[in-house]
Specification:
Helices cover 37% and strands 27% of the residues. The protein has 401 residues and is of the alpha+beta class.
Amino acid sequence: MTKEMVEAFATLEKEKGIKQDVIVDAIKAALVAAYKKNYNQAQNVEVVFDEKKGNFKVNAVKTVVDEVQDSRLEVSLKDALEINRAYEVGDEIKFEVTPKNFGRLAAQTAKQVIMQRLREAERNHIIDEYSQYQDEIVTGTVERQDNRFVYVTIGNVEAVMPHNDQLPGETYNPQDKIRVLVTRVGSDAKGAQITVSRTAPGLVKRLFEQEVPEVYDGTVEIVSIAREAGDRTKIAVKSNDPNIDPVGTLVGPKGSRVQNIVNELGGENIDIVKYEDDPSDYIANALNPAEVIAVQFGDEEDDSKDALVIVPDYQLSLAIGKKGQNVRLAARLTGYKIDIKPESQVEFVDEGDEDDSTEETAQDADGSSSNDSSEVENTEDFPNGETVDSQLDDDADKDEE
């Protein structure tokens, strides 16, 4: 080991961000492993690094005992007193056993251990540096693409974007600049791995924070987001300032603010609705652009979040949306299980007839309701809106057309 080795340590620290202490520890571990393996030694050994000379020394550590049982691990008190009269039983003495030549095999073993430690140190450095970007937007450069991932360079590291995090219909060409959300900073068997996304709901939130100052400073708050990436997103917002309209603030003058985000997401439709503390008003807003006549809830004593929404007959298809998308997103946005019925199928009764009304609702829950109602649960298990009747899907498709 020479002065050039010390200079190499400094270069690695500057270019890779790996501190010299980490590199020295890796070499020490390598020399210990190589010594034990190649010289068939099993005693306790340690490696000491002389920073001034750039030299490594191998020391065998032996314990002082009255009677030696294993000369590789122990030294007699008599021999120890000849070295230094201050030694006592139980003390440890270090004897230098540095080989003159490790040989080719020893060098290869040392190199393998060193490279492994360097990879680990670099991985930890990347995780430490990029963990601060978790759930944040970063701009990266597309490098390449295969059947599993799009590889995006962020700074001096390469992130991966899995297939389900890629916007449907969006193409990624080498050297394209794209904005992505960092969803995971971790490691696997190959080293550090950063996962990014273009489909996560958090991406929409961060884009609005960048585009709308009132969202960034907290004057307008994004309460909830329900997204079907590449197609449609619903956002619920509220204002912490009574003089500021939250929906108008996000839309911007002539729709400029929301349009910039729509363009960034490849034309994805964005519905912005006002959050209300009253669940009835909130659900009605979430079903925008459909008109809602009334919202009724189940038994207040149980914790089920069921809501019956009554809409005009001519608004039924619009409330459900194409393939049940509108009601599905509204359910995710509000956290309620929404059952939609047309006005013609609901009898508005007086308070005195409340029991009869409850009976009818129970019958509907048993499956006796007609095909003109739709029920969607607040769950990701129905991405294609399987709970919406096929007849309603046809009606919704016609309405969209």
